[in-house]
Design a protein that fits this description.
By secondary structure, the protein is α/β, with parallel strands linked by helices. Helices cover 37% and strands 19% of the residues. Strands 1, 2, 3, 4, 5, 14, 15, 16 and 17 form a 9-stranded mixed beta sheet that branches. Strands 6-7-8-9-10-11-12-13 form an 8-stranded parallel beta sheet. It binds zinc ion.
Length: 493
Amino acid sequence: MTTIAVRNAAMLYPCRSRHEAPLADAWLRIDGAGIVDLGPEPCPADLAGAGRVIDARGKVVLPGFINLHHHFFQSLTRAMPVGLYAYSLDWLRTMYPLWQEIDAEAIEVAARLAASELLLTGATTSVDFAYLYPGGRAELFDREVAAVRSAGLRLHAVRGCTPRLDGALGRDLATIPGFGDIRLEESTADILAASEAAIARHHDRSRHSMCRIGVGPTALPAGDPGLLRDLAALALEAGCDRHIHLQPRPVELEESARLHGCRPTEFLRRVGWLGERSIIAHATKHEAADIRILAESGTGVAHCPSQNMRLGYPAGPIPEMRTAGVRVGIGVDGGASNDGGSYLGELRLAHMIHRLEGVHEGYGPDQWMRASDVLWMATREAAAILGRDDIGRLAPGCAADLVMIDLRQIAYAGALHDPLSAVLFAGDTTVVDTTIVNGAIVVEGGRLANGGESRIVDDANRVAAEMVRRAEARTDRRFESRAAKLLRLCRCG
Ligand SMILES: [Zn+2]
């Protein structure tokens, strides 16, 4: 069993309780996958003989962050010129013909890329909402899980699904020549079978589990309450998460009112979708009645401020939800709607965005989220939403998931008055010094410990350009991508 000793950490935030003060000049002992003990220096005498001693002088040590929402497969379609200036539906119209080109190689390359970016920016656990299986290729899910495991990230993989492309979006996409060649929608029977298979193959309920499975449709299937009931029953039986996007969109409001006489949140409550282990992504247009339902049911919300800004949504009633007792975590969202994947970057935005004038009524400096609130949301709150008490804090018996940020750099100079505030306010240097997941050092000195960064970059750029080429050949779309040309100029493709 490998023993790791972290020594002389400038400041260590255990997050064992809500307002716990950080430890100055701290040590921490890891045996195998777990944390054994921690405290202020001097450390116990036997710690000096640990298999590996990490000098954390000048570094702030935090529990590994938990990214609550992502779509790894989108990482190869970041900053696509034709989708940069569009609201959600127009953006989706642009992206779906490209996403149809996701194959086994693309999903592996995208998953390695997204996982690596998260590890380099402080996240040690991530939800991935994998809802697209072009041409019915259900095996893409297994490929992704394997790729993320090899990257060393703790994964909550949602075996998502696309029962239908709703309303105007589906009608518009159907008019694109070649779009119908690759099916994106899955039948109810296929969705249930694939969700069951994913749980059977990958869902590990054990403590310190590196892979747990969730289920859920990407958009509200108001016309198919049976699918939601069946998936919810499956999740309940297996101890899985339930995950869905709900801003909600106009079509979701209209269908829910017409078919069920209520708003989408109330519809989800009625079919048994809400509750603990249920996550609503975004929740940007929730009203007071929706917020009450989320709070009463114990449903979690994944707040993704970059997505809100990128696609022109409201910032979401996040302070109102937190006041009402809704549990809120933070997610970077997919590669194509962020378009970055930096977890620390997302924390900075989540911290700031709600201060904008006019965004929240009666929300002034006395109410603004504190740095400690943001840290809590990214660690303990997110862990609770995922039904876990073994991650999100540095305590004996918990998984050894932690990050170290070196404060001795330009970005933090002059900001040492409060190290946590320095990390969240100052510095757009978002690469951490060290990341440890389940007792394994996966980032060291700001680089992936097992190397391979240039291969990840080369593979991602090559496959991304190839996807554009194939999508343009199949459809009448032009994506204004210069990737193929740049690759030739860089001689890296
Ligand atoms: Zn999303």
